[in-house]
Structures are given as structure tokens and as C-alpha cells.
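Predict the 3D structure for this chain.
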Amino acid sequence: MEHFIARQPIFDTRGHVYAYELLFRSGLHNYFDCDDADHAAASVIANSSLLFGLNEMSGGAKVFINCTRKVLVDDFMMVLPKQQAVVEILEDVEPDEEILNACKRLKAQGYILALDDFVYHKDYEPLLELADIIKVDFLLSDVAEQERLAKTFIPRGIRMLAEKVETHEVYEQAKQMGYQLFQGYFFAKPVIISRKDIPTNKLQFLRILKDVHAEEVDFKKLAQTIQSEVFLSYKILKLINSAAFALRHKVTSILQALSLLGIREIRSWVSLLSISAMADDKPAELVVTSLIRARFCEQLAEPCGLRGRRSDLFLMGLFSLLDVIMSRPIDEILNEITVEEDLQQALTGEPGILRNILVLIVAVEKGEWQQASTLAEELQIDEQPLCEAYMDSVKWAHEIYAI
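Done. Predicted structure below.
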């Protein structure tokens, strides 16, 4: 049976990834619904350990895994390493004596306990004595309740996690209330934040992007521009001399590197490195997610009948979070660099095959399996290879980011 995975990052107050919540499924059509929650939870635990590998999926960060009553009572979570696995107790689990004993066993072994979609009731007091993290749904609760919970439980040494954070305003509000962890689509999908001045170094990288995507690229001029930016020069030379290219002889000049890469590869890699540099003041997960999307888009080119446009699809995925990285609307950014017209249309939301590919990838990220299945059918993509493509994209992105 093929299995699929989606993951959503959880950030700390510094914008660093604290953990991922992992969502595994057996495919886009054959996913587990809530009628079979025990089976789903057990499969998540088994697959995360045996099939996918926790480190491969999380880059060494912690992982939150939903736990039903049966999973807790039967000690299923103890097959996962206590240093990495966070036990997320679902909101419908009644805190009776059997559950409390199971949680005490987990705490004794050193596991972190998190309460999902928390709504206070006095019956939860014994469980709260064991809890390390409380997750509060910011869509289902009002501001007064969010603040009351923070004021009540932070002094008790419990970390507060704001989930379903959809906007920058909500994110800032949650931080002011004292919430220490954050989860939601704010970092996972493009959002528009108020226009800010671009720092000089970001402006330089935007100029490099403009040069590399010009209709006629002057290699000598581009090499000179890149050499003026020490970070980019260092990264390109490090990249081309890495195991990813397996060259026999060491490359020592930017012009030589550009000549070896070729125009399509130049556009992809220079764009990747420029975006990485522009995101130096943003969470690293933005760059990693951009890389995952770029690789995933590239791998969908052939199944979608776009074999000759692998590089364009790579750029589409790479640019899909550029508005968040630059803190500017995407249409303004694209007006300053030259990309294919249909690529620009896809990034700005206009319907078409490229837009459908991008929406499919975002649906996979969010675990929206029904939408992903519908889009895969429209694009005439077999669902079976999607799992392998996504896993490959995650692994590749972490390897490239490490380089």
C-alpha cells in the first residue's frame, strides 16, 4: 500500500522551526477518515518510524503526532524516540484514570505531552498537571478566551501554542499574549504584508534575478554582477563543486561555473541562492518549503506533458513564496523580473495548467487530500508516484539547504 505524508511546521517566537506536525495517509483517495481514527493514528506512528524516517521528514526537529485513546492506553507512542516525538492528545480523549496512568508512563519515560484544541474544563485538571504544551485553536476561540488561557497556564509552566494562525496580525497578537509556539497557514501559503523598504542587499539580489531572467543573458556581465556579491559567489562555487554535480575537476571561477551549468540551470540555481539570501531575516522553513515546491513542480513536468519546461516549473515552485520572503505583493515583484507569461499568471492566481500544478502541491502540503485528488485527476497524473515525488522533494530540499 502506498502511503503519503503532509507536514506542517510549528514555529517558536524567533521564527525557527520547533517541530512539525506529521499527517500520513495511504493515498489521495484512500485516506483514513475520523471513523477509523485509531487505525489512522497507529499507521502514523508505524510509518513515521519504519517507512519514512523521522529525521528524514523533520530534519531532526521534533514531531507532533495525534494520539487517540487506544494509542495512549496501548503505549504505541513508546516505539518513537522520546527526544523527538511529542504526544498530541486529541480533544475527544476523556481524562479518566486509565488515560492518566498512560500519560504518567509517557512522562516517566521523558515524552512531551501536548493537549490538542484545548477548551478548559475542571475534569482536565489532573491531565493539566502532566501537560507540557496546550494548543489553542485561534479560529474557534475568541481573543478573550485566548488571553485568559495564556494568563492561566503560562505561570503554571505550560507552553502555549497558537494553532490555525492565518494572518500576520493574529501572529503578532498571539505573541503579545505570551504564546510561545505558532502553527498555521501564515508561513505555509503566500500572504501580503504591508509594503516595506527593501534593504540594499535584497535590492542587489533582486537585480541579479532580473539579469538572470533577461531574454538575452550576457554571461560575462552576469558573472561580474555575481562576483560583486560575495555570498552568491561563494555559494555558487560551493554548490557546483559539491557531490550534487560530481565534477572531475574543481571549478574556481564564476564564469566557468556559469558556462558549465547552462542557461536553464543557471536561472534555477542563481534564483535559488538569491532567494535564500533574501530570506536571511525570515524563518529558514520558508526557503526549505520553496525548495520542496520547486523540486516537486519540476518532477510533475513530465507527467503533465511539460517535459521541456522542467526549469520553468522549478522556478514557479521556487518563486511561490517570494511575496512572503520579500514582504511585497507578488505582482509587484514579478514586474521587476522577466519570467514566462504563463508562469507569471500562475503565480498571481490566474487559472491554467501551471496554476493547477501549484495548487496541487499546496494541497498536498496542507493534507487537503480531496482537493489534491481532484487536481491530480484533472492533470491526468497517477496518484501512486506522487508520494515518492514528494518524499524525494523533501529529502532533496534538506540536502540542498544544508549545502
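Strands lie at 4-12, 17-25, 62-67, 85-89, 112-115, 133-137, 159-163, 181-183.
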